[in-house]
Amino acid sequence: MYAKTRPKESFVVTGARVLDPAEGVDATLDVRVDDGVIAAIGTSLERNEHRVVEGSGLVLAPAFVDPHVHLRTPGREDEETMASGTAAAAAGGYCAILAMPNTEPVVDSAAVLGSLIEQARADAEIPVGFLAAITKGQAGAELTEMGELADQGAAGFTDDGRPVRSPGLMRRALQYASITDRRLALHEEELSLSRDGQMHEGEVSAELGFAGYPSVAESLMVERDLALAAYETQPLHLMHLSARESVAALAAAQAGGLRATGEVTPHHLCLTDEAVRSLDPNLKMNPPLRSAEDRAALIDGLRAGTITCVATDHAPHARHEKEVPFEEAPFGVTGLETAFAALYTYLVEPGVLSLETLLECMSAGPARAYGLAPPRIAVGAPANLVLLDGNARWQVTERGFRSRSVNSWLLGKTLKGKVRATVADGRLVYEG
Ligand SMILES: [Zn+2]
Ligand SMILES: [Zn+2]
């Protein structure tokens, strides 16, 4: 992971509900950070003249890790930059993010990756890891030099935005990725089925007259790749799952002993295809919002531990590209700055999902899926913390974003739950 190097900080968070489900901590405590490291956890701690961050009435949890972010750099800095994307992540409670390689140019060579790493060292507000492409130019024809990319610092491999169409090439990708000990992360889409689909194929698409993108376009590829991974006994990470059949396939593969992980986005957890009736282009994403049964299966997948990662798939788009009729809009929505509040409002407040499960799936789950050290609240651990206000109500507005893009499905909505402060690698990187 790469970020600006700056001095670590010392401070005390006092009187917060310290909640780290993985560490089994849930109590009102002080947490003292000395030079970026958690030095003491307890009641009435010696403050050592550190700065005090008042935590009473708030929850202090391990900061979030987003395994799926489009930073748009290099190539589309009008939509996002290293600085704006990582500032948005800090405001969303994230201490680390993984960036996707479908940039211009594609991150498919050690040279492109190396320059991104340099840029992160100059501009990134929080640590960023970079996934490199599976195939050159993400064209699906020829594998990248995975060994060289791993040596250069690639955090994993993906052709996100596109599937790897050839099963033979996917099999070889699994073999090579295993040599590098990096995860393959897959965007699962059978293009001959999704075709020109604008939204989930179902009753709503029929009524609206939009071309449908059926669930089976995803689940068929999920089943193919799980079968290949099982045959090669290699681990696999499935990105942005949307269909109940995909969740069932993942559960079956895990039960069979495969080390497969899955992620799900806030929008797929909060919404169904019914929302598309508004024709808001900010509800157009790939994979599309699906049925109520699919949404329920995704939530059940989190509860059951089949899906262990919440990923925003933060996909900034320029205003002129997104402010067009639904049919002409590109796929993708932003999410870094609203993920926690959206999920708190739509799932935790109504009692659909526990706060503990949400916190684990936004932090330890994604870290483990990529073999990264999970953020934790324990003496001796680097301080990666988020301070959350479960009572705050706020309205999502364009002016509130640190991201350069405003294509959020939550614009104008009032959410409950707010990130008050973020600590990433021993520094307070956000206070709001
Ligand atoms: Zn994707
Ligand atoms: Zn994506």
Task: Write up what this structure looks like.
This protein is an alpha/beta fold. Helix content is 30%, strand content 23%. The strands form three sheets. Strands 1, 2, 3, 4, 5, 16, 17 and 18 form an eight-stranded mixed sheet that branches. Strand 8 (128-132), helix 3 and strand 9 form a beta-alpha-beta unit. It starts with 10 loop residues before the first strand and ends with a strand. One zinc ion (ZN) binds next to loops.
Gap between N and C termini: 25 Å
Q: How much strand content do the residues show? A: 15-25%
Count of DSSP strands = 18
The overall pLDDT average reads 97
| Estimated helix fraction | 25-40%
Shape category: globular
| Annotation field: number of helices | 14
Structural class: alpha/beta
Bound molecules: zinc ion
Low-confidence stretches: none
Q: Any idea what the radius of gyration is?
A: 21 Å
Biggest sheet: strands, sense, closure? 8 strands, mixed
Summarize the structure.
The protein is 30% helix and 23% strand. It is α/β, with parallel strands linked by helices and 432 residues long.
Defining traits:
single chain, about 425 residues, alpha/beta, eight-stranded parallel sheet, 14 helices, about 30% helix, binds zinc ion
Task: Indicate the topology.
Elements: E1 11-20, E2 25-34, E3 37-42, E4 51-54, E5 59-62, E6 64-69, H1 82-91, E7 94-99, H2 110-123, E8 128-132, H3 146-152, E9 156-158, H4 167-180, E10 183-186, H5 191-194, E11 199-200, H6 203-208, E12 212-213, H7 216-232, E13 236-238, H8 244-255, E14 260-264, H9 266-270, H10 292-304, E15 309-310, H11 319-322, H12 339-348, H13 355-361, H14 364-369, E16 385-395, E17 414-424, E18 427-431
Parallel strand pairs: 1-4, 1-5, 6-7, 7-8, 8-9, 9-10, 10-13, 11-12, 13-14, 14-15
Antiparallel strand pairs: 1-2, 2-3, 5-16, 16-17, 17-18
Helix pairs in contact: 3-4, 4-7, 7-8, 8-10
The structure holds zinc ion (2 copies).
